[in-house]
Amino acid sequence: MADGEGVNTQCDDGSNEGKPCAEFRMELRDSLPGGRAVIGVEQEGEFVWLASREHVSEQARDEFMEQITRIVKERWWVQNWPGK
Q1: Fewer CB within 10 Å, N side or C side of the chain?
Q2: Residues 6 or more apart from 12 whose CB is under 8 A from it?
Q3: In terms of Cα–Cα distance, which of 41, 12, 4 is closest to 24?
């Protein structure tokens, strides 16, 4: 795992055994284009937030990951990638 990165993988049953999964993480970067605070990058099976260290602390990143984990576990956010 890269330095300053939060990672979480969610599956329907909490395991990776043949179930649709989504990986989401937040990577802290020294800077982002245009002075942005956060940029979301999505591809099938993965959602990554790139966050500027200037605007997002490690504590904020950790709290965000806790909340997004809760949101996904409670199925308030579901990705609908093809074939998943």
Answers
A1: N
A2: 19, 20
A3: 41
d(CA 24, CA 12): 15
0.90 exceeded by the pTM?
A: no
Distance from C-alpha of 82 to C-alpha of 29, rounded to nearest angstrom: 30
Please report, in tens digits, the pLDDT of each residue of the chain (84 residues total). Answer: 344 455 555 555 554 444 446 678 899 999 999 999 999 998 877 889 999 999 999 999 999 999 988 887 887 877 776 655
Q: Which residue bears the tokens 């609908």?
A: 80
